[in-house]
Design goal:
Layout lengths: L2 H13 L2 H7 L4 H15 L4 E3 L4 E3 L1 H30 L2 E7 L1 H5 L1 H12 L3 E7 L13 E6 L1 H5 L4 E8 L1 E5 L1 H7 L5 H4 L5 E5 L2 E2 L2 E6 L2 E6 L4 E3 L2 H10 L4 E4 H9 L4 E3 L8 E7 L7 H23 L13
Parallel strand pairs: 3-4, 3-5, 8-12
Antiparallel strand pairs: 1-2, 5-15, 6-15, 7-13, 7-14, 8-9, 10-11
Helix pairs in contact: 1-2, 1-3, 1-4, 2-3, 6-12, 11-12
Protein name: LysR family transcriptional regulator
Pfam families: HTH_1 (PF00126), LysR_substrate (PF03466)
GO biological process, one term: DNA-templated transcription
């Protein structure tokens, strides 16, 4: 039911004339009549009794009119609220993200937000090094952290989601080198490794039925950029351990294939963090909400395709 139709109904009831109501609302009498008919059809009841000389409310109309007035007021309040929120979503967002998120998911998401809210401007720092809020002039950062680190987080923030990790390789790599089935099999394969601050992450931790496996991987390459690890994997140069968020679209498109799915990698968490509550602006809240929605859609697609299950990727409240 349209707000404009409700406005017509109330004005006709007030003036007891479709023509007079149409004149005050700057519309034709025929358009006003159509509005009344639409409401009557939606309700399945006649609202007005029409004669050649006058128009008056039916008993059903008399009961409906005060409810219509309340509904219109609420709808108009909602319009004002949304308009005010849209007007206030503005200003500069100084944000830090990882290189991989900056190139892929966040690049697209932030483009969409800025297309919708033209008063928002962005200063983005994309780096795998952890940003210092004060030194780097950053107001908000997107961070992947362990559960224990999240508990000790000495910052204001919003948990976006849980992050499952998967082992994956390209179909070409698997065809050429075979598919590993056990942790010991991994020793016969080339790992594509991530390094940060000269620390190479070559110890992979896996779990199966309460059993813990820690494998020191063999590798011919390492890089301090997670997106290059992903691209190497697509190129067929080895096996990677990656966030399901980062390789989700590659798994859905079959550019990459999940391997050893019965062995689990410990969950981490994604947080949007800020050094001060005062920096939680309407624009930051929009980014938070859009990010949650986008990742939840990806989660649903991966679960629907049977690539991951709900136990591996528990939903976040």
């Amino acid at each position: 039911m349209k707000i404009a139709d409700l406005q017509v109904l109330l004005k006709v009831a007030e003036l007891q004339s479709i023509t007079a109501a149409a004149n005050q609302l700057d519309m034709s009498s025929s358009a006003a009549s159509v509005s009344i008919k639409r409401i009557e059809q939606a309700l399945g009841a006649q609202i007005f009794v029409r004669t050649t000389r006058q128009i008056r409310l039916t008993p059903e109309g008399e009961r409906y009119l005060p409810l219509c007035q309340q509904a219109l007021e609420l709808l108009q309040q909602g319009q004002v609220l949304i308009h005010e929120e849209q007007q206030s979503i503005s200003g500069e967002v100084r944000m830090a993200v990882s290189s991989e998120m900056g190139r892929n998911l966040m690049r697209v998401l932030l483009n969409n937000i800025m297309d919708k809210y033209s008063e928002v401007t962005l200063r983005l720092q994309a780096s795998d090094s952890r940003a210092d809020f004060y030194r780097d002039g950053v107001d908000v950062a997107l961070r992947a952290i362990t559960k224990d680190a999240a508990k000790e987080l000495n910052l204001y923030g919003f948990k976006i989601c849980n992050i499952p990790h998967v082992l994956c390789a390209s179909p070409d790599y698997i065809a050429k080198h075979g598919e590993p089935l056990t942790p010991n099999d991994l020793l016969e394969h080339n790992a594509l490794l991530y390094k940060l601050y000269e620390v190479v992450h070559d110890g992979w931790e896996l779990y199966k039925d309460e059993e813990k496996y820690k494998i020191k991987m063999n590798s011919d390459r390492a890089v301090n950029d997670g997106d290059i690890v992903r691209r190497w994997c697509i190129d067929g140069t080895g096996i990677a351990k990656k966030s399901a968020i980062d390789v989700g679209q590659d798994l859905l498109s079959t550019r990459l294939q999940r391997i050893m799915s019965d062995y689990k990698v410990p969950l981490t968490e994604m947080w949007l963090v800020l050094p001060s509550r005062q920096l939680i602006t309407p624009a930051v809240r929009v980014i938070r909400d859009e990010l949650k929605h986008t990742i939840n859609e990806l989660r649903g697609q991966l679960i629907a395709q049977g690539i991951i299950d709900t136990q591996e990727w528990p939903d976040s409240p």
